[in-house]
Specification:
The chain has helices at residues 3-11, 15-39, 61-81, 109-113, 137-150, and strands at residues 46-49, 52-55, 84-88, 92-94, 99-100, 104-108, 121-122, 127-129. By secondary structure, the chain is an alpha+beta fold. It has a three-stranded antiparallel beta sheet with strand order 3-6-8. A three-stranded mixed beta sheet has the order 5-4-7, with no helix packed on it. A two-stranded antiparallel ribbon has the order 1-2.
Length: 154
Amino acid sequence: MPKVLADQLLERHDALQQMKRLQAMIEDEHSRRKDFYQWVTEDFKAEFINGKIVVHSPVRKRHWEASDFLSRLLSIYTSIKKIGKVGTEKVMISLTRNDYEPDLVFFSKEKAEAFEEDQVLFPAPDFVVEILSKSTAKVDKTVKKDDYALHRIK
């Protein structure tokens, strides 16, 4: 919590009640996130962002082609150099509060070697690519960008 926000909260006469309310809200969000894990399937692209389920529409041709091109380049490079694994579209990364399916992810060899065959939630990758579209650009440039930076994702 930024110091300014914490200071503002502590100046309130009802600080304790506000903290309890915040804790209840966080617990409710955590419960909804668990429900999301039971609900989400491989059949569609969905993310859990700041307590809300966001279902994405199918990609446009230009998005698919950009994703395919970048994926092939990164995959060939990482394979030749034996430095890790590249994933596309449906790799769900689980961060502190949110779950995303970035367009492309890269995991270092050390991280990738720890993955299990049936694993569906993955830790913070080393690198992500979000291909901007009109419907996702705002969230990609704000919430996701800030969250990726918080988790030291390039």
